[in-house]
Amino acid sequence: MIIERLSREHRNIEMLLAVLERELEIFDRGGHPDYEVIRAIISYFELYPELYHHPQEELVFAKLKLRDPAAAARVGDLTLEHQKGTQRLRRVAQAIDSVLADREILRQNVDNIVRDFVESERRHIMIEDRDFFPAALRVLKPSDWTEIASASTNHEDPLFSEAAEETFDALRARILRMEQESEAERH
Description:
Elements (H helix, E strand, L loop, with lengths): L1 H27 L6 H33 L1 H7 L2 H23 L6 H33 L2 H11 L9 H25 L1
Helix pairs in contact: 1-2, 1-5, 1-7, 2-3, 2-4, 2-5, 2-6, 2-7, 3-5, 4-5
């Protein structure tokens, strides 16, 4: 089911946010976080949520607006929230690039930018899990789900292929493995 997959992706995103937060804590203590892990997480967020997860949510949301405008209004402007998330992610990438290029940037500013991204993503996920997904499950009809599924599984688009899924699964596994190795080296 589409909502189950989106929820599972939320759990994966939450794991990556936790890894990002752990790396930020190392940075805040004046240590050297694993920038390879951080960059891999940024790359993941630039690709998977932006190109697959959010468009699929927006297909579901469009149906929710038609079936229950009041429920959609409680969720808010999903497209705008996704755009704000993209902007926050760009700020994170720019801050990390500045650190790595030894440009003048206060540690506190880096901390604020990354924390803002992590906290905003968590709030966004919570609203979707609490309000959006249950409302969609409650009011969308089987024909809506069929239409959403057919619109989001175009086999011509390589982003929705099994190979793409395997690529993203491999990237997610690599990020988590790198974090575990980095954590083991620090102890």
